[in-house]
C-alpha cells in the first residue's frame, strides 16, 4: 500500500485556501507562523482554547514561546466549551477588543476553532455581536487573521470556511460559511492527538465520515468531493480500529488526521445536507451531547432515506465497510443495517432513545431543523427533497 512509502515525520504543506502544516512535529512550524504574523505588523493576539487540552498536549508551550520570540503579546481565553455559545464569543470578543488584539489563534478541536473564527469576524465588525452573526443579519466580508492549531481528527474546520456556534436562548445551532474565515495557517500534528480518549477518537472520526457522506451526495457535489469521500472512508475504516487499540500509534493518528483534513476539503467543496442539519437541533437541545455521537446515531437513517437517489455514489464510497453493494434502490434497508453494524463495531451502541430523546420530542426537532438559521440551506441541497415527513422519518428511524 502507498501509505507505507510515506515518511510521517516529514512535515509537508497541503494547500487549499488555507496553508496547512501537516505531519508529526508540525507544531514546531508555529515559529514560522509567528514570524509571519510579526512580519504583517501584528503585535497582539487573542488565543482561544478549552480548559486544558492546549496544555496537556504541549501545544501551548510551543505556541507561547513562538509568540514571545517574535515579540507578540497574547491574551489567553480558555473558556470555550464543547458546542460553544454566542455568549462565549461575545465575551471573548470584548476581551480581545480591550486588549487590541489584531489576530486570533485557536488551539483545540472544532469548538475553539469555530469560536475563534467568530471572534475574528466580530473584531472586524465591532458594532455587531455574535447573535447577529449567527442569525445571519449581516454578511461579513472581512475578519482578523485566524491561525488554527488543531487537536482532533474530525472537524476539518482548520482548513475550511465554516463555523458553528449555538444560540441557547432559542435552542438554535446555526452554521456560517464565509471566505473571510479560512484560517491563514493551520497546524495538523498527529502527535498532539495521541492523548485523545477512545470515545472522542471514535466520535471525531465518525464526524469526518459524515462530512464526506453528505458532501458526496448533495445536489451540488463534484468529482473532487466524491474522490475525497472514498479515500476518507477507506482510511477511517482501516486506521480507526488501530487507534482505538493503540492510541499512541502515530501512523494511525496521521492517517485519521489526513482523512479529517481531506473530509474538510470535501465538504468545503460539496457542502452538507441531512445529517448535520438534523444533528444541530439535537445538540442545541442537549448541549452536552457530543456532536460526533449525534451524527453517528443519525447516519444510518439518513443513508436509508437518500439511498434510492444516491445509491451508486454511496456504494462506491462505502465499499471498505459495506462491500458488494451495487447502488440499487432496493439496497436501502441493507445499507441501513450494515452501516449501523459498522458503527456498533467501532464502539457506538447508542440510539437516540438511549441518549434521552423519545417520540415526544420529534416534532420539536423537526421544527428546529427548518427554523434554525442556515439549516434550511443544507436541507435545500439534499439529494432527496427535504420535507417535514422525510426529516421526521430520519429522526424516528434513529430512535
Describe this structure in words.
The strands form two sheets. This protein has a seven-stranded mixed sheet, sandwiched between helices. A two-stranded antiparallel ribbon has the order 7-8. The chain folds into two domains: 191 residues, Rossmann fold; 205 residues, Dehydroquinate synthase-like - alpha domain (Dehydroquinate synthase-like, alpha domain, Up-down Bundle), CATH 1.20.1090.10. α1 runs parallel beside α3. The model has no long low-confidence stretch (mean pLDDT 96). It is built from 15 helices and nine strands. The two termini are 40 Å apart. With 399 residues, the chain is an alpha/beta fold. β1 and β2 form a beta hairpin. It is globular and about 65 Å long. Keywords: Oxidoreductase. One of its GO terms (cellular component) is cytosol. GO terms for molecular function: alcohol dehydrogenase (NADP+) activity; butanol dehydrogenase (NAD+) activity; metal ion binding; methylglyoxal reductase (NADPH) (acetol producing) activity. It comes from Ruminiclostridium papyrosolvens DSM 2782. This is Iron-containing alcohol dehydrogenase.
Amino acid at each position: 500500500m502507498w501509505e507505507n512509502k510515506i515518511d510521517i515525520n516529514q512535515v509537508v504543506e497541503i494547500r487549499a485556501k488555507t496553508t496547512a502544516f501537516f505531519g508529526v512535529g508540525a507544531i514546531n512550524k508555529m515559529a514560522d507562523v509567528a514570524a509571519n504574523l510579526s512580519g504583517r505588523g501584528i503585535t497582539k493576539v487573542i488565543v482561544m482554547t478549552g480548559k486544558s487540552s492546549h496544555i496537556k498536549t504541549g501545544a501551548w508551550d510551543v505556541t507561547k514561546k513562538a509568540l514571545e520570540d517574535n515579540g507578540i503579546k497574547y491574551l489567553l481565553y480558555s473558556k470555550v466549551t464543547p458546542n460553544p455559545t454566542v455568549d462565549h464569543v461575545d465575551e471573548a470578543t470584548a476581551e480581545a477588543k480591550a486588549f487590541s488584539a489584531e489576530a486570533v489563534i485557536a488551539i483545540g478541536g472544532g469548538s475553539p476553532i469555530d469560536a475563534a473564527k467568530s471572534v475574528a469576524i466580530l473584531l472586524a465588525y465591532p458594532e455587531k455581536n455574535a447573535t447577529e452573526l449567527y442569525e445571519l443579519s449581516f454578511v461579513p466580508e472581512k475578519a482578523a487573521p485566524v491561525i488554527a492549531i488543531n487537536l482532533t481528527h474530525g472537524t476539518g474546520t482548520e482548513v475550511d470556511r465554516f463555523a458553528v456556534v449555538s444560540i441557547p436562548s432559542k435552542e438554535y445551532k446555526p452554521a456560517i460559511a464565509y471566505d473571510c474565515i479560512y484560517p491563514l495557517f493551520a497546524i495538523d500534528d498527529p502527535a498532539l492527538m495521541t492523548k485523545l480518549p477512545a470515545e472522542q477518537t471514535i466520535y471525531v472520526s465518525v464526524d469526518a465520515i459524515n462530512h464526506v457522506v453528505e458532501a458526496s451526495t448533495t445536489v451540488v457535489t463534484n468529482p473532487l468531493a466524491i474522490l475525497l469521500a472514498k479515500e476518507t472512508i477507506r482510511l477511517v475504516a482501516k486506521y480507526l480500529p488501530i487507534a482505538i487499540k493503540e492510541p499512541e500509534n502515530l501512523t494511525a493518528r496521521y492517517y485519521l488526521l489526513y482523512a479529517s483534513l481531506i473530509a474538510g476539503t470535501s465538504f468545503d467543496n460539496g457542502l452538507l445536507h441531512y445529517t448535520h442539519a438534523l444533528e444541530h437541533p439535537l445538540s442545541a437541545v442537549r448541549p452536552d451531547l457530543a456532536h460526533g455521537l449525534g451524527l453517528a446515531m443519525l447516519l444510518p437513517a439518513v443513508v436509508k432515506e437518500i439511498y434510492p437517489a444516491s445509491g451508486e455514489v454511496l456504494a462506491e464510497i462505502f465499499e471498505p465497510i459495506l462491500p458488494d453493494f451495487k447502488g440499487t434502490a432496493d439496497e436501502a434497508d441493507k445499507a441501513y443495517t450494515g452501516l449501523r453494524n459498522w458503527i456498533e463495531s467501532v464502539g457506538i451502541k447508542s440510539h437516540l432513545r438511549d441518549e434521552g430523546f423519545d417520540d415526544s420530542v420529534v416534532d420539536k426537532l423537526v421544527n428546529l431543523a427548518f427554523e434554525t438559521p442556515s439549516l434550511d440551506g443544507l436541507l435545500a441541497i439534499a439529494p432527496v427533497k427535504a420535507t417535514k415527513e422525510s426529516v421526521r422519518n430520519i429522526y424516528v428511524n434513529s430512535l
